[in-house]
């Protein structure tokens, strides 16, 4: 058991690189979105309808990566830093948690990006277009925050510079966790979601007693364990060892995304039911 507190993480100075801005791959993000959709209250579903414009959470979950091909300055030069945070040790997190981020210019990392999305969606002053942007990014960033190497080390760009082989094919550690482990299951995102979905209230309550900083701290600790083992020849044994972690992180991401959305859009949602977050600090299984 590990007690998560907002004083447990520090952001390291790091060079922003677009290569670190991809997480989970398309199917991983869709799994998070699909699972979240199963835990939304009716009021939340109704509020999301005009923002989703006929799409599902699974469909919009990959938008923030797809838009990186856009030629505008924001997407080419500024958006990559929204997707990750580099971690150096486990102290002084609270000074980096900015609950009141309200403009794109204030976003320096994924934690800022999550709070930006929350604040825009909560604000009566936000336009519909601003809320659509915020929702699509928030869905994506909650997924990113549960990929261990989006809270990895700056010097290797979150595992992108660590070369590994996956059943003999050359790749890198980040890509392995983004895509290859999930794709090795040979399931569609809906099939994968059905395998990891849960209605266990105890599990849901455990996941939801947390804050975005906790999710990134969890990812940091997982990535550090993987770094320290330095496993570079990846095959069946590696998949057997880490697939439970992959499934848990995707499950946590989906439940917690639903929790945020219910918190934002449904004032009548019941505490710790239907994925509603209720506590700022938590004790979670590592």
TrEMBL record:
The keyword Transmembrane does not apply. Residues 1-23 form the signal peptide. InterPro entries: PLipase_C/P1_nuclease_dom_sf (IPR008947), S1/P1nuclease (IPR003154). The keyword Cell cycle does not apply. Keywords: Disulfide bond, Endonuclease, Glycoprotein, Hydrolase, Metal-binding, Nuclease, Signal. GO terms for molecular function: endonuclease activity; hydrolase activity, acting on ester bonds; metal ion binding; nucleic acid binding. GO terms for biological process: DNA catabolic process. PANTHER family: ENDONUCLEASE 4. This is S1/P1 nuclease. It comes from Pseudoalteromonas caenipelagi.
């Amino acid at each position: 058991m590990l007690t998560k507190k907002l004083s447990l993480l520090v952001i390291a100075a790091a060079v922003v690189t677009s290569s670190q801005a991809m997480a989970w791959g398309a199917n991983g993000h869709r799994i998070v979105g699909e699972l979240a959709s199963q835990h939304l209250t009716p009021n939340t579903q109704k509020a999301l309808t005009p923002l989703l414009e006929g799409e599902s959470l699974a469909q919009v979950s990959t938008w923030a990566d797809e838009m990186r091909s856009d030629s505008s300055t924001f997407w080419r030069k500024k958006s990559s830093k929204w997707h990750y945070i580099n971690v150096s040790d486990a102290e002084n997190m609270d000074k980096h948690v900015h609950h009141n981020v309200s403009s794109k210019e204030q976003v320096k990392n994924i934690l800022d990006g999550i709070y930006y999305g929350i604040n825009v969606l909560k604000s009566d002053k936000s336009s519909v277009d601003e809320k659509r942007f915020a929702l699509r990014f928030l869905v994506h960033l909650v997924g990113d925050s549960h990929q261990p190497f989006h809270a990895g080390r700056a010097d290797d760009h979150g595992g992108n510079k660590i070369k590994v082989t996956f059943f003999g094919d050359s790749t890198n550690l980040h890509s392995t966790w983004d895509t290859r482990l999930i794709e090795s299951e040979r399931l569609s995102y809906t099939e994968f979601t059905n395998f990891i979905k849960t209605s266990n209230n105890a599990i849901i309550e455990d996941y939801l007693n947390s804050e975005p900083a906790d999710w990134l701290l969890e990812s940091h600790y997982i990535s550090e364990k993987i770094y320290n083992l330095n496993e570079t020849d990846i095959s069946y044994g590696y998949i057997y060892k880490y697939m439970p972690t992959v499934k848990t992180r995707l499950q946590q991401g989906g439940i917690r995304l639903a929790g945020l959305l219910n918190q934002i859009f449904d004032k009548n949602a019941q505490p710790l039911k239907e994925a509603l977050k209720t506590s700022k600090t938590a004790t979670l299984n590592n």
